[in-house]
Write a structure and sequence with these properties.
Radius of gyration: 19 Å
Strand content: 25-35%
Mean pLDDT: 88
Shape: globular
Structural class: alpha+beta
Oligomer: single chain
Length: 347
Amino acid sequence: MSLQVSERPGPRRLKRRKPMKGPPLPTNSPSPTPLLPDHVTLGEPDRSGPLTVFPVLGEPGSLEYLSFAEASAHGCVVRELEPASVNDVLVVNPLDVPVLLYEGEEVQGAQQDRTVDLAVLVPAGARQRVAVSCVEAGRWDGARRGEAFAPSPHTAFPALRAAKNRTMREALAASGEARADQREVWQDVDAKAQLLDIDSDTSAMRDIYASRAERVEELEGGVRRRDGQLGALAFLGDRPLVLDFVSRPDVFAALWQPLVRGYCLDALGHEATTGLPDADGWWAAVRRVRPRHAPAPGLGQTLTFTTRLTGGTGLAVDGELVQLTAFPADGDAHARPGRIQRPSRRR
């Protein structure tokens, strides 16, 4: 894969390693094709305390792209807009391949830490506005507005991601724009800090992870990534927590540790289990989903789905499923210990 920097940013042809499999997504909605390709399956799980993680295995997709963590080492940057906005950032991709900003991924620094609301595939050589939520309510540092964001060692924890995802799906259906509820995000970060008895001067999600790093690392050590792995299905006890999927194993390898640290943070305070959860029923429910789709903010189409058992979002390009996040229908109920009312701090 080439990582050359474009001298004159502009759209470039997407590279493919092999022919696309399966029929393309139609232009109407909902899609008549299953959400996950037939070759994608669950492997044997790892169990660590209350957490059980099944690897998602399958053939890699044909579309070439990079994770933001990979691309940031080659000149891709995330910056504040001018003027700065709490709920939007600018991604500048000078590379000759697209770059994936993953749903729930956190970027740190600049005026305040943010987390990506909806997966976006930024075209090669492009500048792309990306919707985000603030996860550091007590800081708005104008002196750092010119600073580039850095990739975070963790994502948002799944309970927060589930709440954001549900709100975005509702907003997309109502207004055509997928936006999380910033006030709710602040409340959920506060609720997690309160649950774990953590103080943070700036109400930063990163301080929650830092304060429980030893325990998170202990749980993380019991879960391993397989070669060629495309995703993970995590359970807390016998309840599904989240399904994460991307079409490239190298991209998932870059996302693996940040995602697993989120799983582990949500596992804190839960009792260890002895038996394996029955994953087949929920996995089958996700596979049967027929998603609706809408134009994505970057490349491809945004996929959304809400059923009795599951809800989530994804991203498809030319009929190829590139990214998917699925939550149980009540996916955050076990991890939201009440609401903390906060006045809006949006600038």
